[in-house]
Design brief:
43% of the residues lie in helices and 11% in strands. It is elongated, with a radius of gyration of 32 Å. It folds into three domains: 78 residues, no CATH class; 45 residues; 230 residues, Ribonuclease H-like superfamily/Ribonuclease H (Nucleotidyltransferase, domain 5, 2-Layer Sandwich), CATH 3.30.420.10. The longest helix is centred in the C-terminal third of the chain and has 21 residues. A five-stranded mixed beta sheet has the order 5-4-2-6-7. By secondary structure, the protein is α/β, with parallel strands linked by helices. The protein contains 15 helices and seven strands.
């Protein structure tokens, strides 16, 4: 009669288990010496825990049993999750990773499982998902690289003084978020910058996934702003819109009124949003439209302003939480305006304001872009 048992590769065979039991129980050998006299199934020196478990199982062996009872169909453990539970975890990540925090802890909480985070990680890893830092920059296509090269090369010889003259108004939009009223919501809003998420190997950049947004997750009340500063280092244009984007007629009216007054020179610089590109309307109002190359936020100095603005707002949000304070929309807008105005004032002991430094640093920015093969040059 033949008997078949399954033993973990790092475990002991029945013969090795019996030998370990004898050395421990009868010969009274210390564990350190037993480890040198037995081998695992794979022929290696066993760990002390493996030997202890083998001796314990052997000690519980009943008189009529030939071998101890083993449960190694799942490495000695009973499965904590059913196939249906595992499928629920994967489906949850697929559905919600673009809209919620999808850490293992959050998944366990939402699905009401009583497992460890490592269990969730194993399930998702097996499904092809890895917890990885999310890339913040998308790759540039050959066409975009060529456009950047032409744009940069045409302005590489410009001095800081020339940039100050040419930058009549640098425009861009940003969607800020005001912390919600409940304290728990405010805390989540303040802790919104997730650096990693569940992604599949080689997964392309997807702007619909929240962590690909370099400004963080937008959990709370959206407060869209369109703004701009001029070559004199003054933040002269602020337009609080109801929506992040709007039609061409609204923007044409902005050009005829606020944009024209805010510009210190003829050139108005912005990105390639479709409703912004109205060269004829700019020309009618004595302005010239200049576009940054596509997918080139690193060349636009106002992107630095938005980044610094968010940092300042985040610091003050933590102060609000400590003081149990909630801002109204009007108070939030006043705070933003105050921070933006502070960027045009030199700090104590400095001769240039933050905005002036961005303008004077444009030659270095373009030189860095050229030196990097016209790829992303940072901000």
């Amino acid at each position: 009669m033949k008997y078949t048992i399954t033993v973990h590769p790092k475990g002991l065979s029945p013969a090795a288990s019996a030998k370990a039991w004898y050395l421990r129980k009868k010969a009274k050998e210390p564990w350190s010496k037993i480890l040198d006299q037995v081998k695992t199934v794979s022929g290696k020196r066993p760990g002390q825990k493996a030997v202890e478990y083998a001796v314990r199982r052997q000690d519980k062996l009943k008189r009529k049993e030939l071998f101890p009872t083993l449960k190694y169909s799942n490495c000695g453990r009973k499965s904590e999750l059913s196939d249906k539970d595992k499928e629920a975890i994967v489906n949850f990540v697929v559905k919600w990773r673009g809209k919620r925090f999808c850490t293992a802890k959050y998944i366990i909480q939402e699905l009401k499982f009583r497992v460890k985070k490592k269990t969730v990680h194993r399930v998702l890893n097996k499904a092809g998902f890895k917890w990885r830092p999310v890339p913040r920059k998308s790759k540039l296509s050959p066409k975009e690289l060529a456009q950047r090269k032409g744009w940069v090369d045409a302005r590489l010889h410009w001095t800081s003084e020339r940039w100050a003259q040419e930058l009549g108004l640098v425009l861009d939009g940003v969607t800020l978020t005001r912390a919600p009223k409940p304290l728990t919501g405010a805390q989540k809003h303040a802790a919104q910058s997730i650096k990693s998420m569940w992604v599949k190997e080689g997964e392309a950049l997807d702007n619909d996934l929240h962590t690909h947004n370099r400004y963080g997750v937008q959990l709370a009340l959206k407060v869209p702003l369109w703004g701009g500063f001029n070559g004199a280092g003054q933040f002269t244009y602020k337009f609080w819109s109801e929506k992040p984007k709007f039609d061409q007629d609204i923007w044409a009216h902005q050009i005829e009124t606020a944009v024209k007054r805010a510009a210190s020179g003829k050139c108005t610089w912005h990105d390639n949003e479709k409703f912004l590109k109205q060269a004829d309307v700019y020309q009618q109002n004595g302005l010239k439209m200049v576009n940054f190359p596509p997918n080139s936020g690193d060349l636009n100095p106002i992107e630095n302003v938005w980044s610094e603005l968010r940092k300042e707002l985040a610091l003050r949000e933590f102060e609000d939480i400590a003081a149990n304070r909630t801002l109204t929309v009007q108070q939030f807008r006043q705070r933003v305006a105050q921070i933006l105005n502070s960027f045009q004032v030199p700090k104590p002991g400095q001769t240039e304001s933050y905005l002036q430094k961005l303008i004077s640093g444009m030659p270095r920015r373009l030189a860095k872009c050229r030196d990097n093969g016209y790829g992303n040059c940072g901000k």
